[in-house]
Amino acid sequence: MSRRRRGGWAVLPAIGLLALLTLLLAAWVGTQSIGWADVAGAGDPLLGDIFWLLRLPRALTGFLAGAGLALGGAAFQALFRNPLAEPFTLGVSAGASAGAALALFFGGGAVLIGWLPLENVCAFGGALFAIAVVYAFSRLSPDFTAATLLLAGVAVSFFLSSLIMLLQHLTDPYNAARIFRAMIGGIALAGWRQLFLSLPFILSGAALIALHCRELDLIYCGEETALSRGVDTGRARRRLFLGVSLMAGGITALCGPVGFVGLAAPHICRSLLGPGHRRLLPASALFGGTFLVAADLLARTAVAPAELPAGVVSALCGAPFFLWLLLRDGAGTR
Fold first, then answer.
1. Residues contacting residue 170 through CB under 8 Å, at least 6 positions apart
2. For FRET with 302, which of 28, 115, 180, 209 sits at 20 to 30 Å CA-CA?
């Protein structure tokens, strides 16, 4: 047994402890100093409200979104056997944003389908549409490569981003501002209600992915290997596409598209733990959530009292990492 494999399970508690410390730091640190008495309700009630109604749901939203994006990235990287695959680079986040923008454009931002917001449902539909188009184009190509997959994702992202800008131009100023939020990632407006409404999408998608650890391991080893071990790869892909689309829809409706979390987190965790998804998936979720919470903490304190969108900070960190992966060993051309 390799040293990395022996120490793999020891890495998970370390990442979990880092995640807990980051969450606590994000809830406590800000322009206003908050004491234990304020949190317990024995001090300033305004500072208590800042902690319980603003900072804590914001930190939990960031962690949940980052964890979901990292899970989606880990699943896509195994499915496509490509370290550059993730919801943002394959156009899934753009599809979810376009679906949410369409709901806002037609005045459905506050409409509920049962107990689910129409914006979340449309975001899920947009994410599913985007990955279906990308996958169909990549499979129809006579010389299917990682470059084909990425180019299809870029093309779909550009088209859907143009559609969002068109909707923003045609609508009224109020909806234009809301649609603009669908184009940049941030969790400044997150609250308990928004978090709980998006939770079913994210948790159901995460559960679908977690139930397919064995299939992901075998598909990562190769299509022929998976088929020889009795894996129905077509059904597994469809279920995993559904799971990632559910998560991307819920996350995008909650905080907009956030790029590169799903790229960096699984890659770093894979280098620490190896490719086995029983450990890789929980580690990626913990690391991705920690990364986005830290990015949001930096976004709201770096230029305080003003704030940057968390998506901007994650992109500034993730884009160089993406370029490094693209250039390393010619990854983008395999």
1. 105
2. 180
